Amino acid sequence: MTTTAVTKWEARIDGKLNDLEYLATIFEAPPLVISLQHDGSGYRLYHKNFDSIIDRGNSAEVFARANAIAEMLSGILVYERQSDMPLSIGAVYAHDANGVAHTIIQVKGAKLRITGGSVVMSVGPVNDGEPAPPLPPFAVRLWQLAQSDKATARVLAYLNAGDMATWSGLYRIFEVVREDVGSEDAIERLGWASRRQIERFRRSANSPTASGLSARHAKEPTQPPPNPMSPHEAEAFVRGLLDAWFQSKGNHLPP
Questions:
Q1: Beta-carbon-side half-sphere exposure of residue 27 (alpha carbons within 13 Å)
Q2: At what angle do helices 195-206 and 167-181 cross, to 10 degrees?
Q3: Where are the domains of the chain?
Q4: Which of 29, 146, 167, 231 sits most deeply, having the most CB atoms within 10 A of its CB?
Q5: pTM, whole model, 2 decimals?
Q6: Helices in the chain by DSSP H: which ranges?
Q7: Does residue 160 contact residue 72 with C-beta atoms inside 8 Å?
Q8: Among residues 178, 234, 183, 187, which one has the least CA distance to residue 206?
Q9: DSSP secondary structure string, 70-138?
Q10: Is the pLDDT of residue 255 over 70?
Q11: Mean pLDDT of the chain, nearest integer
Q12: For position 61, what pLDDT does the model report?
């Protein structure tokens, strides 16, 4: 039996309709394309890195790559659009030279998502007194940055994690930002948070006396803070850091 080589791979991508509609308007050209199918089968995702897989027997690798893309896009949607539903990958389609799309794998399942987030839109440079042409949407440039910036990719993954709004989840994001800029002192120097805010967050996150069973530690590492942060305050604190951090990367976001 002869196996027909795959000429193009696609994966069905599921999620909130308005999220998918939004992604389809901003990811219209390679390397990443999200498009609505006119046959009523929903939205499909294509990425140029699928093209290196020509054997239909390697469909699991296509699914893995598509799932990684969906998870990163989910993190962007949480941050930018306050999405409360993750994207997921369903069927994987292998197109052959005859134009036939073979359904290879079907995966179902989703996880809950934490809501919230802020939108940061960077402004383009000004040339000779005239505004520069509009930049691509922030989500597209953030996606592009995450392809080469490991810290951005890690934060998007943590935003997509189910425990994002817990002390542990928030602290992981805080640690990535802190590591990326160098130290807590650097965060203070940049004006993103005061020393008192940083210390209050850190001590509240780590103190079982202040934060109970949800604290990062079971044993009191230091004296509990006199005025602990509430989980709501902690989430606002971390989101404020993310706003400033992403804004600071504006010069590094691809045009």
A1: 27
A2: 140
A3: 6-105, 132-252
A4: 167
A5: 0.80
A6: 17-26, 59-81, 138-146, 150-159, 167-181, 184-189, 195-206, 208-211, 231-248
A7: yes
A8: 234
A9: HHHHHHHHHHHH---S--EEEEEEEEETTS-EEEEE----------------PPPPEETTEEPPPPPPH
A10: no
A11: 83
A12: 94
